[in-house]
Amino acid sequence: MIRSLLIANRGEIACRVIRTARRLGVRTVAVYSDADRNALHVRMADEAVHIGPSPARESYLRGDRIIEAAKATGAEAIHPGYGFLSENADFAQAVIDAGLIWVGPKPDSIRAMGLKDAAKKMMQEAGVPVTPGYLGEDQDPARLKKEADAIGYPVLIKAVAGGGGKGMRRVDAPDQFDDALDSAKREAASSFGDDRVLIEKYISSPRHIEVQVFGDSHGNVVHLFERDCSLQRRHQKVIEEAPAPGMDAATREAVTSAAVRAAQAVNYESAGTIEFIADASDGLRADRIWFMEMNTRLQVEHPVTEEITGQDLVEWQLRVASGEKLPKTQDELTITGHAIEARLYAEDPAKGFLPSVGRLEYLFLPEDVRVDTGVEQGDAISPFYDPMIAKVIVHAPTRSEAVDTLLSELNRRPISWPVRTNAGFLYRAADAQEFRSGTITTAFLETHVEEVVPPAEPPSNMWYGAAWNLLPSRPVNECRAATPWDGFHPLRLNSPESARLAIQSGDVVRVIDMLNSPNGNWTASGRDPMLMLDRGQVYSFRIYEPRGTGTSHGLHDGEIEAPMPGKVTAVEVSQGEKVAQGQRLLTLEAMKMEHALTAPFDGTVAELNATPGAQVNEGQLLVKVTPEDRPS
Ligand code: ADP
To answer: pTM of the entire structure?
Structure first.
């Protein structure tokens, strides 16, 4: 068994690999960029090496620096995780040429599967059913159009070098073909530097079924059953499960044995996934499942397979890379129960799934089920990388119990603030009748946006609960005296039995009239938002503070810090200038939104560390205001 391992990745997958390595007594080396200096994977590893600036291109994609780091720390092997360099055959070869062990398939297997058209041809030769279509060399638009007409619409144009849904266009009718081809080629050229395309029959009622395969250097190949990843948003997986709902024994046998043949055809070693597309208009049927592509790495969704088989796939990878045989034979592998994984992202579904970056001031993740994460409370979601927070993985005896467990976990936790998450969206998607019945297709989320995206504004009954909880238990007079708000009183007692309170959630302010006196358990605080959870969705409430009287984020005694990484777009004041409370000091653009940073009180600009156009990091001191009556 290898004794030391460098993990050429970050986030949850780096932490995941470190966990298994540690259990097996393997020393771990992390690599990190500027943004990840204090990241969890760095804290967890035995050793860590800085490999460059925050952009991935200058750090996690710098194969040369990663190999240097392995040599400098005496690591014997490199695990690439997923993404970044994991499917880069040249990097795999460079690792091997440097005398290190590559924890992954042979570079030739990665290459063979890298182009969709070549991979499909190879699978056809191995007797694996592939989606009907055109894979020819002739890329003349007229020829492509003729082939599309012959296949019959709708068809899908795919970039042969494609990935992540890029360079892919669905064409419903012949007269749309030319435009779709142009735009697919343009996108393919700019994303992959290769504008060749193939054409496939568009499968109606498509379900995404994939098979986990594993090979070793002794010529053994097994499968670890299938996963269903049909719940997708824009061709990106959202919720995955194993086994696939509605998969009968004959269909499973057909698809898993096709996957094993596919892996054998490339002498596959290590973990791989064969992706299939099924026409599920009539349920899952053996003669309606076709090879789509092979991923030559560990997948994000591998935990569901681990849960139902009781195996640790990272351990398998490390054993196979060490030259050992596969830990189990096909006969020794069985399915126990049902597992579901939901990908928790730092993004705001109500705002078009815009990533939500910044510090995870509050983060409570589920504790009773498996959670694979790369962050802890206090860490930051940076704009440089995939904004995944965690994967929530449940395992239960049956599918319906697994769905219930997932829902009950999402309903209590995760709670994150001020970073927004897609937890409410995950809840609604998993709770949808179609998902419960196990019949959803990859089109489900697109056609059910209304049902699955939680409203930006909290449901009306929540406002009343919030109002009661925010209502001061202290005497109202004392409360008023304590607030610095000029002339505005968010709370008015109409009589001892009734009160009127203005509260704010997001951009919405509501005036709530309440009867009865409060129970006295809560103390009002206009500054601290109160969080309430509705089916996974976190809503914040605070006592309404009119604009200009509020505080900026990151305010410490007049020190105004950048609340998130961004760009200074305007500086409205100069050093030494007198400013009034609420006056705009500068404007910061972050995540496509403008944030005004205002003076917390009357005073003087004692320090100014911002110029228009400057890129600033979260927490960076931008302006220091000293109060009127105090010397600096
Ligand atoms: P990429 O490599 O760009 O991710 P894939 O070939 O893996 O592209 O396809 C991505 C997704 O597109 C699949 O998961 C499936 O939802 C959909 N898809 C792919 N091929 C077809 C097809 N022939 N018919 C219908 N949907 C398809």
So the answer is: 0.82
